[in-house]
Amino acid sequence: MKKLRSLVSGPPLALSALSGLLSGLAALAVAELVAGVIRPQAGPVVAVGGAAIDRTPAAVKDWAIRTFGTNDKLVLQIGILAVLAVFALALGVLALRHRRIGAAGVLVFGAVGTVAALNRPDSTGLTDALPSLLGAVAGAGLLYVLIGRLSASPRAPHDDADPEGPAGQGWDRRGFVIAATAAAAASAGAGALGRTLNNSSGKAAASSRNSVALPVADSPAPATPKAAQVRIAGVSPFITPTKDFYRVDTALLVPKVDATAWRLRIHGTGVHRPLTLSFDDLLARELIERHITLTCVSNEVGGPYVGNARWIGVRLAELLAECGVAPPSKGGPADQLVARSVDGMTIGSPVEDVMDGRDAMLALGMNGEPLPFEHGFPVRMLVPGLYGYVSACKWIEDIELTTFDAYDAYWVRRDWARRAPVKTQSRIDTPKPFARPKAGTVMVAGVAWAQSRGIDRVEVRVDDGPWQAATLAAEDTRDTWRQWSFPWRAAKGGHTLTVRATDRTGQVQTARRTRTVPDGASGRHSVVVTVE
Question: Is the pTM of this model over 0.85?
Answer without folding.
Answer: yes
